[in-house]
Design goal:
Blueprint (H helix, E strand, L loop, with lengths): L7 E2 L2 H9 L4 H6 L37 E12 L7 E9 L4 H4 L5 E7 L7 H19 L4 E2 L9 E2 L1 E4 L3 H4 L3
Parallel strand pairs: 2-7
Antiparallel strand pairs: 1-4, 2-3, 3-4, 5-6
């Protein structure tokens, strides 16, 4: 008999609601559109080919609409104690639309879930932890999320999101 493991989960939609309520966040995620471009030089992820080719479900350029966020999914494992071997996993999203100078600040990172140890789960086991994440990402990708923002406090606006590293795995899930 095995004990059930408890994993903490943070709703992506709730985290985005909090982020969009901060003054300046909405303009920060759109700043990449107004950057100075240099021929054949890539300075950030949004200078890459894929950023300019990622399509929405209708075949349109995903980032052509305002508030269309592109995430990177990160999973990091760490030892929670110096005395015992016990790995804990952190699953978090970074918002690639943000300028690199603020992209990795703690207030701009979404901690999705914490996966308990004592060791890293196998691929099939990790799917159990990611089910809620997949559900949220699908709803965000299809544009099923509206929230008020600091710039639009009285009228909810549509927010869309995708994770291009993870999308091929969850889009048909």
């Amino acid at each position: 008999m095995y004990a059930n493991k408890v994993s903490a989960f943070n709703s992506i939609k709730y985290a985005l609601t909090v982020m969009f309520s901060r003054p300046g966040f909405e303009s920060a995620i759109e700043a990449w559109r107004y950057r100075t471009r240099h021929n054949n030089t890539m300075y950030d992820i949004y200078d890459g080919q894929f950023w300019n080719e990622f399509k929405d479900r209708d075949g349109n350029l995903f980032t052509s609409q305002a508030r269309s966020l592109l995430f990177t999914l990160n999973v990091d494992w760490f030892q929670s104690s110096k005395r015992t071997v016990y790995s804990v996993g952190a699953v978090y999203l970074t918002i690639n639309n943000l300028p690199r100078s603020i992209r990795y600040k703690k207030e701009n990172i979404i901690l999705v879930c914490v996966i308990p140890g004592p060791r890293e789960p196998k691929d099939m086991q990790i799917n159990n932890y990611l089910q809620v994440l997949v559900k949220d990402l699908k709803e965000l990708y299809y544009g099923d999320f509206f929230t008020c923002t600091a710039e639009s406090p009285n009228a909810p606006v549509q927010v869309r999101a995708g994770d291009w590293d993870f999308r091929p795995r969850w889009i048909n899930h």
